[in-house]
Amino acid sequence: MDKKAREVAIVGGGPAGLTAGLYLCRSDVDAVMLDRELTGGQAILSPLIENYPGFPDGVEGTELVGRMKEQAERFGLEIMTFAQVTGVTLEGEAMTLHLEDGELNARAVIVATGRNPRKMGIPGEEEYGGRGISYCATCDGPLFRDRAVMVIGGGDSAVEEALHLAKFAGKVIIVHRRGELRASSYLVERAAAEPKLEFMWNSEITAVNGGETVDSATIVNSKTGDRTDVPVSGIFFYVGNDPNSAFLSDLLELDDAGYIVTDERLESSVPGIFAAGDVRAGRFKQVVVAAGEGALAASSAQGFLEEVGARRVYEGDR
Questions:
Q1: What pLDDT is recorded for position 1?
Q2: Which terminus of the chain, N or C, has less C-beta within 10 A?
Q3: What is the mean pLDDT of residues 53-74?
Q4: Per the domain annotation, does 1 fall within a domain?
Q5: Of 194, 212, 237, at which residue does a domain stop?
Q6: How confident is the model at residue 288 (pLDDT cuts 50, 70, 90)?
Q7: Is 139 a catalytic residue?
Q8: Cβ partners under 8 Å of residue 189, min gap 6
Q9: Domain that holds residue 72
């Protein structure tokens, strides 16, 4: 691994990281982006994104991220894929990023590692990702207009998204392992008043079925043991998310759910380390929000470099 110090290291290659890289490189900042997988993040799993500005007919997640990547690289962003960052240590004004195959030094770091939906490990869950299975009603709800869909979960996120889906779907079935919702009372009242919502209590999904796309879900009632194949075109999972922040848990302040706490400049509890996108503590998780936060994090990181007199990499680090 090249140990030359960079001005900014961006950890994560989704919309937040790519936008941060674009803004930094256009400002002639020496930046490198490290991604543990192929570039794109969770956005590439969405078959159609209809709420990103500038695409009136919608755009496939892979196409949108591909365009972001092409634009960032055109301005000189270096992208290192399959570069797993395992930790960060501080050495004076410099930071050392520890990777599986070496180290890299940087003056500032932007963490844009996102989050992963918590998986249930049931048959069909991986197979039908992006082909009927979704984790974002705001992103994919319009794809299921007038169809029957299913929401797995009973907390605030599940009910909020089920109510959103009711604007498009013909029927929304909430499957919950308990006999009542865990959501806030005002959401429970709204759900009870929504005629498109149906409920399967004391039930769990055990399999996702279909051909090219999802066509049913196998539901088991925990009290009776009854097993039912319920016809649906889409299944939305809301059983929790896990932010990709564990590698920084001993260094940065995280909230109770593991998301990185920042100030209004998106700076973390450690000066010079910024966070953007889904890994940052914040309520609204969308591609457009991640991109905006990537731009703000880049601007803040550049300001940090200027404040500490480290606008350029020292010759001795080259």
A1: 47
A2: C
A3: 94
A4: no
A5: 237
A6: very high
A7: yes
A8: none
A9: 6-116+241-317
